[in-house]
Design brief:
367 residues, alpha+beta, 23% strand, elongated, binds zinc ion
Length: 367
């Protein structure tokens, strides 16, 4: 893996933010920029070079994984290591020059307490500047390697839907269905689940985040199944809602409306379209069916190294979709105390539209 193109994009962004350097502390961002998958690291990057800091536990892992950055192994805590390194080598970054060294930090990921501590350790002339997710902004558009990894994760995730459908039976606990799913996922070689699996049956299906509970699946009603797997670092995310027993006319009507809304939203996805437009396509359809007030969350989100990434596909967002973004499209309707339905696919944005990655059929499956 060549990390230079990713680092080069960030260096351009560092210039645009009028910074001399950026200290990256969010682990998925570090992984994206230099390949390190461990749990203790910081990456200092500036035009010209980058330095990766870790401690002794990760020295051999770092030399095996980190590319495109010099590795510095220190016993001290990460921020202290970085501050000491800057005190010694800061002239490379602009320390001592007029204007001093403007050092960006990832404000969304460094606590106020850590930032204060760090500021106290930095040499005179080095000033901290908060930034708002410059790496995440770059990560929103996936490169070829990432799309292939996401595709593989989605295919594996989708293949597990059969396990879920087989496990769903009246009287079975939701956690048992989740256990069957997660066991099969592990056997298939996944690194983990993208998030705690949602298996929400009967009235619980009306909870948009009904994580599998000890509730028994009733003899008649919907079961919302929302799950994903992590494969080579990348997350999948899908939802299918199945019905146990014969659905009522109302249940069928709601299911069809959610499916229509999902297809309408997918039909709008294209390079250059605003995320609000995609959200509005799903929302308008559900409003037309009298169900608008029961669609209580946003239409989707970016997905990649993390399960929830930029962009958010929501009404109040101004972001524009760009080719290479990988997002979910997942409208839902939740009738409190009755039932809920959600259908979710992952799609890649292209110049002319999008490619739906999730191959699992979406017609109402009754079990
Ligand atoms: Zn999901
Ligand atoms: Zn999702």
């Amino acid at each position: 893996m060549d990390y230079k193109p990713r680092q080069n994009k960030l260096v351009v962004s560092i210039g645009e933010h009028r910074l001399n350097a950026l200290l990256v502390t969010h682990l998925p961002n570090i992984r994206y920029l230099c390949g390190f998958t461990g749990s203790c690291g910081a990456l200092l990057i500036w035009p010209g070079a980058s330095v990766f800091f870790t401690d002794g536990r990760y020295s051999s892992q770092a030399s095996g994984e980190v590319r495109g950055a010099k590795i510095v192994v220190r016993r001290a805590p990460l921020l202290q290591s970085a501050a000491e390194w800057i005190a010694k080598n800061g002239s490379k970054l602009g320390l001592g020059k007029p204007g001093g060294l403007k050092l960006g930090i990832e404000a969304e990921h460094l606590s106020i307490a850590a930032t204060k501590r760090f500021a106290g350790m930095l040499p005179v002339g080095c000033k901290i500047r908060p930034t708002s997710m410059p790496v995440e902004h770059i990560r929103a558009v996936k490169d070829k390697d990432e799309v292939e990894r996401l595709r593989a994760a989605v295919l594996l995730g989708s293949s597990l839907f059969d396990v879920v459908a087989k496990a769903i039976q009246a009287g079975t606990r939701e956690t048992q269905v989740a256990a069957e799913l997660e066991y099969a996922a592990r056997l298939a070689g996944v690194e983990g689940m993208s998030f705690p699996s949602i298996i929400a049956s009967g009235k619980r299906s009306a909870l948009p985040h009904g994580v599998a509970s000890s509730a028994e699946i009733p003899s008649r009603g919907f079961v919302v199944c929302d799950f994903g797997v992590i494969l080579t670092g990348y997350c999948s995310d899908m939802t299918r809602t199945v019905h146990v027993g014969c659905p009522t006319a109302e249940a069928r009507r709601v299911y069809e409306a959610v499916l229509e809304a999902q297809l309408a939203a997918i039909a709008t996805v294209r390079d250059g379209v605003s995320v609000a437009e995609v959200d509005s396509a799903a929302r308008k359809l559900l409003q037309k069916r009298g169900l608008g007030t029961y669609f209580t969350h946003s239409t989707g989100h970016g997905v990649g190294l993390e399960i929830h990434e930029s962009p958010r596909i929501a009404a109040n967002q101004t972001e524009i979709l760009r080719a290479g973004m990988v997002i979910t499209v997942e409208p839902g309707v939740y009738l409190p105390g009755k039932f809920g339905v959600r259908i979710e696919d992952m799609v890649v944005v292209t110049e002319s539209g999008c490619e739906v990655l999730t191959p699992t059929p979406k017609e109402l499956l009754t079990l």
